[in-house]
Amino acid sequence: MGTLSFANVTLRAHLALLLAMFIWGSSFIALKIAVNDLAPMIVVFMRMSIGALAFLVVWPWLRHGFNYQTGDWKYLLGMALFEPCLYFIFEAKALQYTSAGQAGMITAMLPLLTAIAAFFILRERSHWRQWLGFAVAVAGVVWMTVTGEDDDQAPNAALGNFLELLAMCSAVGYTLMVKHLTRRYSAFFLTALQSFVGSVFFLPLALASDWPETISTHTAGLLVYLGLVVTLGAYGLYNYSLTYLKATVAAGYTNLLPAFTLLFSMALLGERLTWGQWIAIGMVFIGVYLSQERRRKRKDELSSPEAPPPVTG
User: Fold this and answer.
1) Which of these, 259, 245, 247, lies nearest to 288 by C-alpha position?
2) The pLDDT value given to residue 311
3) Average pLDDT, integer, range 40-50
4) How far apart are the first and last CA of the chain?
5) At 160, is the pLDDT very low, low, confident or very high (cuts 50, 70, 90)?
6) Are 74 and 135 in contact (CB under 8 A)?
7) d(Cα 7, Cα 248) in Å, to the nearest integer?
8) Per-residue pLDDT reduced to its tens digit, 23-42
9) What is residue 303's predicted lDDT score, i.e. its pLDDT?
10) Which of 67, 108, 121, 139 fits as disulfide partner to 258, beta carbons 3.0 to 4.6 Å?
11) Does 245 have pLDDT greater than 60?
C-alpha cells in the first residue's frame, strides 16, 4: 500500500510539472495576442498588478519564506531588475516583431547562456562539448531567423528574435541572483516580490503609453490568465512537484517549453514554419542536448533545489 501511495504521489508530481510547462508554454501565445490589442507596457503592468493582488491573498503563507539578512537587498534588487523589469521590457517588445513560436524556441538557449555566464562570472570550468552545443544552438537560432519570412505574426523577425535573446540574457542574470537568494527565501516569496516590484516599475511606463477607451473582454481575460494562472498557478504546480521530485527532474521538463509554445502557435495563431526553420529548430535542440549531457552531475551547482525558473511569456 505504501509503495502504491508513493507511486501515486510521484505520478501527481510529474503531472503537475507537465501542466506547469503547458501553462508556461501557452503564456507566449497569450502575451502575443495581448500586445496586439494593448501597448506592451500596459500589458506587462496589468499582468504584474494582477499577480501582485493574487499574492496578497496568500501572503499569510508567503511570509514564512522570508529570512532577511544584511546585504541581501543588493541581490533582491538585482533579481528584480533583471526579471521582471528588463526581461519583460525586451520580451513584450520582442513579441511585437517576431512570432510566438520563434520566441519560444529561443528560450531553449537559457541553460546554455547560464552555463556560459557561470564560466565567465563564477569561473566554473566548461567542457568542449558545452561550447560546441552553444555554437550549434546559436547557429540554429540564426538560421531560424534568416530562413523565415516576415508576415503578420513576425513583421520583423530578426529584431524580435534579437530582443528575445536579450530577454534570455536578463533571465541569466536573474538565475545567478536566485542561486544565492533561495538559500534563505522561498521560491513563492521571490516570485511575489517580482510581481510587486514589477507593478511599481511598469506603472509609469504604462501611464506613458496610449490607453484604449475600452479593453475587450477577451483581452481582459488574457490579462487575468497571465497574471493569475501563469504567475500563480504555474509556480504553484512547479513548487508542488519539487516537494516530491529532484530539482534535476524538474529542470529537465523545462525543455518542453519551446515545443509547447510552437504547438500552441501553430494551432491557435496559424503560424507555419519553413523546412529550413524546422532544421534550425532541430539544431537548437541538438545544441541544448550537447551542452547538458556533460553537466548532468553538476546541474545543482547553478540552481538551488527550490529555485524558480525564470517567468516566461
Assistant:
1) 259
2) 56
3) 94
4) 41
5) very high
6) no
7) 19
8) 988 998 999 999 989 999 99
9) 44
10) 108
11) yes
CA dihedral 226, 227, 233, 236 (to 10 degrees): 130
For residue 301, the one-letter residue type is E
Q: Which three cell numbers stand for residue 20?
A: 506547469
The three cell numbers locating residue 150: 516576415
For residues 198-237, one letter each, b for 16 or more C-beta atoms within 10 angstroms of the residue's C-beta and e for the rest, the string is bbebbeebbeeeeeeeebeeebeebbbbbbebbbbebbbb
Output the CA angle 286-313-75, nearest 5 degrees.
90
Please tell me the distance from the alpha carbon of residue 209 to that of residue 194, in angstroms, as a whole number. 22
C-alpha cell at 257: 517549453
pLDDT band at 279 (very low <50, low <70, confident <90, very high): confident
Q: Are 271 and 38 in contact (CB under 8 A)?
A: no
- Residues 135-152 have pLDDT tens digits of 787 788 777 767 766 677
